Amino acid sequence: MDLTATARLLFTRQSKGGGDSAAALPVLPPELREAMYGSDGVWDRVLVDVRRSARPLGRKEGKEELYTAMVASGNMKGLLGLGIGIAETAQLAVARAHLDSMNRLAAVPLYRGHTVYHSVRHTFHRLQMQMEPRPEGWGLTCSDLLYELCGLAGIRNISIKLRGGRTNKFFVAQCFQEALLSQSTPHDGVEASGMYIREVYSGRKLPGGLVRGVHVM
């Protein structure tokens, strides 16, 4: 069993005794804890929001408090993940959301490593987002939450406008990630056209030990 599966099992396992031990944070493997919480500067995380809710248990038992947290994780070089955690305490909900975000990392296409490839307009529920690529040195023109998320993804120059539903931070973060992943890159255009570029070598000796007539034309 890998480290992520082991950590997920520790977070989801509940103590049979109940009480405070059921909400206690589990002990993670040292390798996974170093990757998630280490100070090497490779990975970073942002707490998007924490919500408190209550569900009825019965007429005599009252209500049970539940906390829902969303955490974003990234390596500031093109990887971004969003995770959601639900637990009886806010601390455990944030820990579960952090683990879920590390398990849902996705590669974000970046143009020259600092901005998006083209203008992107995306709608998530009633939230509308408009992204515009900007040249090097422009900076980040967006809200505070999107500023932090852009840093996690490695975006340094972009302009983002929001319309409708801007107060829902869960929607803003999910719309941001979906908009980034909806970009069309030059590689996608090549795959759709079915046309590829063939390298031509005029010299007698081919690189990499290739043989003419066997590996290349």
Automatic annotation (TrEMBL):
* Any Pfam family hit: Ribosomal_S5_C
Q: Which UniProt keywords apply?
A: Ribonucleoprotein, Ribosomal protein
An annotated Gene Ontology molecular function: structural constituent of ribosome
The GO biological-process annotations, alphabetized, read as: translation
The S5 DRBM domain covers 60-108
Q: Which domain of life is it from?
A: Eukaryota
Name the UniProt record assigns to this protein: S5 DRBM domain-containing protein
Q: What is the lineage of its organism?
A: Eukaryota, Viridiplantae, Chlorophyta, core chlorophytes, Chlorophyceae
